[in-house]
Each structure stands twice: as C-alpha cells, then as structure tokens.
Design brief:
Length: 322
C-alpha cells in the first residue's frame, strides 16, 4: 500500500524545510545544549507560527487539530533539522489536556507558541523542565501541574536536558488519557526519528562522494553502496508505516511505526558513523547532533521491546479498537 502526501502536505513540508534551513539549526542546537535558550525559543515561535503545534490542539481551543497526518509531516522536518526542545512532549501535553477547564486555560498558548510544555511520570525525568512553562506529571492520583523542577542533568543527547519535576502542584484531572497521549507521543517520536535518519543518510551520501581513497570516491566502493542502500531501504520501509499509522491512530500501528522508524534511524546513525570514519566521533562536527538524537529517540516514549510488545498485544486483539 502506498501513502502519498497531497500537494498541500508537500507544500507544508517544503515551507518548514525552508524555514528551518534558514534558521541554521546546528548553532541553535549547540546553544540549547549549553542552556542558552534565546535562539531556540525564537525558532520555537516561528515553528508555532507555521502551525505545527496547533495541529495537535483541537479547534475548540484555538488549534487546527487534531490532525495526526500533518503533524507527522511536520515532525519529519523537525527531525531532519534536529530541532531542539520538548516538541514531542508538547504534543503529548495537548493530548493529555482533555478536561475543558485546564484545556481552555493552557492549550491556546501552547498552539500559539507562547508556551513550551513538558510531561513525565511523577518521579521520573522530564525533558527541558528548566525552559518549559507548562510542566505536567502524573501518578496514581491523576495528572498534576508541577510547580517547578530539580537540578538539570545531561543526557546522551546534549540537547535533551533532563530534570525531575517537583511534586505538589494543582490536580488537573484524576483520570488523564495516558494511553491516548502515549500514542500521540510515539507518533511524533517516530516522525522525528524518520527525519533524523533521512538527514543522516543525506549527509553520509554527500560525504562519501567527496572523500577519496586510492584516487576514487569511497562512495564508488561496492561495500559502501550496499550499506547505504540497506539504510535507504530501511528508511523507505518506515515511511509508509508512519503515515499509515497516522491515518489509523491505532496504538499497535503507531507502536509498529515507532519501532521501525527508530530502528531505521539508528541504523542510519551506525552507517553514518562508520562511513565518516574518525570525524564522525567528533563532537564539533555537526553530524554528532543527529547521531546522538537517533540514539536518544530510540528509547524515548517506548523502547523497541515495549513497542514490539504493544504490536503483539494489538495483533492478539488486546489493543485493537472494536
């Protein structure tokens, strides 16, 4: 089955690509990693003005959504350009806030880019809690707003800064739609990972065309072309799974898309690292921004094992909608 974007969706992707290319995202990512958020927040507002976060917010709360297919289109581009910040978590928060009171109070600012949101289970680490203006945590009692965050710590991806959310905030709802929100988070993560993988492949292809050995480009060697072809096939296999899952929004389908896209991106990272040689290990080289992100996204909002278990549950009838 083929899932092709319509002209409006392709134009949306092209406009985001142009916006992010002009923004010089590698320098934004490096500043964000140092805790300097000004350029990242300026980019966040431009992304919001393009309508990205509004795609996850219902029209009743000044959004355009929910529109999962267009959201997947947008997040592929966010991944392609390694955009920093809790972009997935902002989508998850939009899915968590279903109670009219909190939704009316918080979602319009989220859709407009005036707020940055993060979320995590109580007691665990949340992404970018130091910059988020909406912080949500859930436990056995329900979904709460967090009044603050603890010390910031580094992670595998320097641009993914982690901190524990403080307890004791306002109870927003005793029964948050956690499964629904997790499905949205996994969809956004899958799309972001696909974009990361595509960027890694593009950069590696360009590099092996330039690097020479024995007087010829290394890209002409059969072993290299086979590695790149296998990476391309894995990414292209993930693409229809992603957009098929976005159409259905079935938890099992989304879990399948997430594990497939993240594994394809991880494969692209390993191929890129091997074919770039020693320069691929260099933190100052921009490739590292995508290498570390591919590894981090692989376990974000569901490890490969957890996503495969969700797929099996769906196949057995436990996760399918009637």
């Amino acid at each position: 089955m083929r899932f092709l974007l319509d002209p409006e969706q392709r134009a949306f992707a092209d406009s985001l690509n142009a916006l992010l290319t002009a923004a010089d995202t590698p320098s934004v990512v490096r500043a964000w990693s140092r805790g300097e958020h000004a350029s990242g927040l300026a980019l966040w507002r431009r992304i919001a003005e393009a309508g990205v976060f509004a795609l996850a917010v219902p029209e009743a709360y000044e959004g355009y959504g929910p529109r999962p297919v267009e959201l997947a289109v947008a997040f592929v581009e966010l991944g392609r350009h390694a955009v920093p910040g809790p972009v997935v978590e902002t989508v998850m928060v939009a899915a968590l806030l279903t109670e009219p009171g909190p939704a009316k109070r918080l979602l319009p600012a989220l859709a407009a880019g005036e707020a940055v949101a993060t979320a995590a289970p109580a007691g665990s680490y949340a992404l970018d809690g130091d910059v988020a203006t909406i912080r949500l945590a859930w436990d056995a009692d329900g979904l709460r707003s967090a009044p603050g965050h603890g010390p910031v710590r580094a992670s595998l991806d320097p641009a993914r800064r982690l901190s524990r959310l403080l307890p004791g905030g306002e109870l927003l709802t005793p029964e948050p739609p956690l499964a629904h929100a997790l499905t949205w988070a996994r969809l956004a993560t899958a799309a972001q990972a696909l974009g990361v993988g595509l960027a890694l492949l593009d950069r590696t292809v360009a590099y092996v065309k330039q690097r020479t050995q024995f007087g010829v480009p290394v890209g002409s060697f059969q072993a290299v072309t086979h590695q790149l072809a296998d990476t391309k096939v894995a990414l292209e296999f993930a693409r229809p799974l992603l957009f098929g899952a976005a159409l259905a929004m079935d938890p099992a389908d989304v879990a399948a898309a997430k594990v497939t896209a993240c594994e394809a991106a991880y494969r692209a990272a390993r191929t890129a690292l091997q074919l770039h040689g020693a320069i691929g290990y260099t933190a100052e080289y921009d490739l590292s921004l995508w290498l570390t992100k591919a590894r981090a996204l692989r376990s974000s909002w569901g490890s490969p094992g957890e996503c495969r278990a969700a797929v099996l549950d769906g196949l057995s009838g436990g996760g399918r909608r009637s």
